[in-house]
Amino acid sequence: MTRLSVNINKIATIRNARGGNNPNLVQVALDCERFGAQGITVHPRPDERHIRYQDVLDLKEVVTTEFNIEGNPDERFIELVKRVKPEQVTLVPDAPDAITSNAGWDTIRHADHLRRLVDTFQSDGIRVSIFVDADERMVEGAKAVGSDRIELYTEPYAAHYVDNRDMAIAPFVRAARKANELGIELNAGHDLSLENLRFFDEQIPGLKEVSIGHALICDALYFGLENTIQMYLRCLSSEAPGGLAGLH
Ligand SMILES: CC(=O)[C@@H](O)[C@H](O)COP(=O)(O)O
Ligand SMILES: NCC(=O)COP(=O)(O)O
Question: In this structure, what DSSP letter does residue 40 have?
Fold first, then answer.
């Protein structure tokens, strides 16, 4: 079954708005785990506008599920990840001033750079995932540099889901099949939601993990964090009804 990693960037955004410690990021991470999340994702950015580097150190002390640190592997990020040694690092090619992640790596053009990064993290026992667009050549490139996993950048799927979900999913199915064929494991994330998650999970073969933040935290404003996490988990289980029908 596909695992749910909750991205808690937005909790840090709210906390930082007032400069204090409300909401308490560490407590929220513990609560996400208690409510059923199978992992915690953070994406420290160079300007620390949401997750701070100190948050990552603090979370490492308490997170007992899979800890996934995403980000652009600049020197400071590499040092932080190698110090914390999370279960997984996800390499994302963000520009420092990007509002949010908006593209995957060109794994062919940046092959040498990525190979060195994969080696440095794997030598510390950290699983490496490379963020890529749904493009079979980029999946092959990730495999060629030795990455353990890829994370498919799902924003284009989410954006086109409403118009034509079969067309929206098609490149993702092709990329997933390529990953399965090559034996590289598969994650996905960005703009996944209660609306589009179930179909994605049903259609994508071999999906190991989704990381979800923005929509999930927005839903929690209405449904509460515990209900919301349970609703997302139900979207990832083929038996039970998900989405709004799953509210208890
Ligand atoms: C890699 C990815 O798609 C997410 O981590 C996304 O970038 C979240 O980052 P923000 O919360 O800063 O938008
Ligand atoms: N890797 C994607 C992630 O962590 C969360 O993305 P989003 O749900 O905040 O768009």
Answer: E
Per the annotation, the verdict on 248 as an active-site residue is: no
Q: What fold is seen in the domain 3-246?
A: TIM Barrel (3.20.20)
**Structure-model confidence comparison of residues 228 and 238, the more confident one:** 228
Whether 190 sits among the annotated catalytic residues: the reply is: yes
Cross-strand partners of 69: 42, 89
Using alpha carbons, list the distances in angstroms from residue 108 to 62, 132, 178.
37, 11, 16
Two structure tokens written together for 174: 């092709």
Q: Is 50 assigned to a binding site?
A: yes
Q: Ligand 1 mean position to 190 CA, how many Å?
A: 7
Range 117-124 average pLDDT:
98
Contact 152, 176 (CB under 8 A): yes
Quote ipTM for the complex.
0.97
Q: List Cα–Cα distances, 38 to 19, 59, 67, 114, 163, in angstroms.
A: 29, 15, 9, 27, 31
Distance, CA of 104 to CA of 25 (rounded, Å): 28
| pTM check: above 0.90 | yes
SS3 assignment, position 38: coil
| Cα-to-centroid distance, 43 and ligand 1 (Å) | 6
List residues bridging with 90 in a β-sheet: 70, 129
Which of 43, 66, 151, 209 is an active site residue? 43
Mean pLDDT of 18-37: 97
Q: How many CA atoms lie within 13 A of 215 on its CB side?
A: 17
